[in-house]
Structure formats: C-alpha cells, structure tokens
User: Fold this.
Amino acid sequence: MDAKAEELSAAIHEIRERVRARHPQGAILGDVALPDLRPLAQARDAAEGKVASIGTVNPRAGGLANSIIQKLKRAVARALDWHVREQVEFNRAVMNCVQSTIETLNESNRTLAALAARMNQAQALIEEARELKDVRSHWIQWRQEWEAKLSSTEIQFLRSLSDLQGAWQHRVTLLDQQHRETMKALHADFQGSIDRSAEVVQKRLWADLDRVRVEYETIIHAELRLIRQKTSLMKAGSEVASRVDAVDSAVSLDWLKFAEKFRGTEDYVKRHFTIYVERFAGCSNVLDVGCGRGELLEVFGQNGIQATGVDLNDDCLAMCQGKGLSVEKADLFSYLHALPDKSIGGLACLQVVEHLPPARLPEFVALAHSKLKTGALMAIETPNPACLAIFARHFYLDPTHAKPVPSALMAFYLEEAGFGMLETLPLEPAVRTMPSLASLPQDFREDFFGSLDYAIFGRRL
Assistant:
C-alpha cells in the first residue's frame, strides 16, 4: 500500500509541475490570477503525516535495554488505542474535509480557467465586431467611390472598345482595298505575261514554220538542181579525172616526210580530232576520203567507230596497213561511183577538197550525197581562205593545192547537193602559230586573221 501511495503521490506532483509550467504566474485572464492552493496542499500533507504517526513509537538504537523499552512503548500504545481512537477518526474526517475542500477549489480553478477561455473568445469576437463596425461605417463611402470608379472605368472601356472597333474597321477597309489593288495588279501582270508568252510562242512558231518552209524549199531546189546537173557532171567527170591524174603524177615527193614537216606529228594531228569523234559517235561504215597516215581511222577505232580509208599514195597506204587499218587504194571519184547508193553511214574528207579542181568539187559533193544514207553525216575540213595568214604561211607550201574553198561557197555546194542542218566550226586560231598577230586590234584580227582551217558538217536530207 505504501508503494502505491508513493507512486500516486509522484504522479500528482508531476501533473502539478506541468500545470505550473503552463501558468507560471497562475494568470488566466490578463492580470487576474488564480488562487494558489499549494500552501493548503502542503498543510494537508503535513497533517496527514501527523495523523499517520498516531500509535507509533520513536525508533531507538539496538541493544537489549532499548529493545525492552521499545516493546513497553508498543504495549502502552496498544493499551491507549481505545482512548485515542475517537481523536484519530476525528483527525481523519478533518483531513477528508480538507481534501474535499482542495478538490473543490481545484474544480473552481478549472471552472475559472474555462470561463477565462470563453472570455478570451468573447474578447476576440468583440475585437472582430469593432472591426466590422469600422468596416460598416466606411462601407458607404467605399461603395460610393467604387461605384464612381466603376462607372468611369466602364466609360473608358466602352470608349476604347469603340476606338478599337473603328480602327479595326478602317484597317479592314484598307486591307480590302490593298488586296483588291494587289489582285488587280497580279491579274494585269499575269495577263501581260500570258500575252507576252503567247506572242513569243507565236513568233517562235512562225519563225519555225518559216525555217521549215525555207529548208523544204531548199531541199526541193537542191534535189531539182541535182537532177539537172547530174547528167552534165557525169559527162565531164572522165575528162577532168584524166587531167587530175596527170597533175598528181607530175609531183613526186616523199609525202610522209612532207606531212611530218608541214602538217605535224601523228599525235599532234590526233589531238584535234575530238570534234569528229563526238559527231560521228554511234555511226558505222564511215568512209575517210584521203585518209593519209590514218590518224582519223585510228581515233575512230579507239572510240568504237567502224571506218574505212581511201587514198592513192602507196607510202601512206603501207603505213596504214602496218597499223592494221582498213584502207584501199583508189581514186575517190572511181571509188564512190562503184559504191551502191545510200550505202555508207558517214563520210569524212579532211584536207582534201583544196586538192581537187574547182570544177569537180560540186561533183564530189553530189556524188557523196548519193552514196550516204538518209540522215548520215558528212564532214569536210579545209584551209580557211578568210584568214590571210593561211596564204602567208601554209597554203602554198603544198604544191598539189589547187584553190582554196571559202566556207560560204562550201556551204552553198552542200545545200545544192541536198545536205541540211549545216554547221561551220573555226579550227586552229592563227595567233597560235603567229604570235605577232596578238598586237593587232581584236576585231581586225578576228575578221582577217581568224582560224587557219574550218570544218563544215551537213546531213543528207
């Protein structure tokens, strides 16, 4: 029982300490303090101690005499127990009354604390009511000012909205006007472009029709001219051929050495044959009239173009045969007369026509036309008499040269024989072999000292 009492007393003491820590001054509302019950509780505890000591004896030191004395004291205390019992009960009743009083006072303190909490809440409500009263007193003034500001803001907003609507409408009107003007300008430009394109196409169409008409008329004229001249040319052929053979036999030279000295090395000559490879690409059964050392035949063979050469010089033919080239010894007129009509796929005649008598040149062109297939290409290369340097340095070096052939005259012969799609290319600028020509004015140099040779191409119609 004593251990439980001590444990309970310790718990009560701890609770009291916590309450004191929360309310160190015992204040519950402002400066109002709760009554302090600690002195009363301390007096109660002291009285309870005295009540508990009734009927006990003081302890003494050990020993026989003291033990006897202690036993006597206990016997006397038990003997007087009936005398002090009423006093003990009275004391306990008084202590119970004191305990009830303390508990009542503690309950009063708790009630006062609850009332203080309620009063604190009431105080907060009072403060809030004061604030609400202040708000209510100012609400009318605030409302009037707010309504005035609202009205002013609404007026400004409506005015700004009206301005924006007017500006937007004006902008829409301007954009619509600009769009209409832009579309009108685009339509005008488009219509003008269509008109210009139509005009260009129409002009081109009429130009093409005129060109086609001229070409057809030229072809018809050439065919008719060829028919008229064929008989007379055939009659005169045998007589002129005999004269040419006489001239050729009269000149006896080492033609290989002559070509090496004045025409150039074989590699030099081959480098200039690119234009012929490009134009004769895909052709077969090409005839090289006056093949010489066979440079063109070699270039054609390297590029897959099947070709045959014709020449009268034995040294040149032997050189070509040593290279494995296909060559024949024959007079070009005799060889061509022996071929069937429309039997060869192309004809190249390089540096030959200037050796022919001028009277036989039209015959040669007409004869070549009759032996070529329709659409086949014919190429002629010859010195250019429009370049004065050709006479100063080159043309008269060859004693077998008969007469130079101007490019315009050569083109006329080709047109007369029935060739179309003519193309003339200048070859070997004279300024390369005569650097002093560079000092001349360019326009004068181009007019009188242009290319040493020219090549002319035509297709059989």
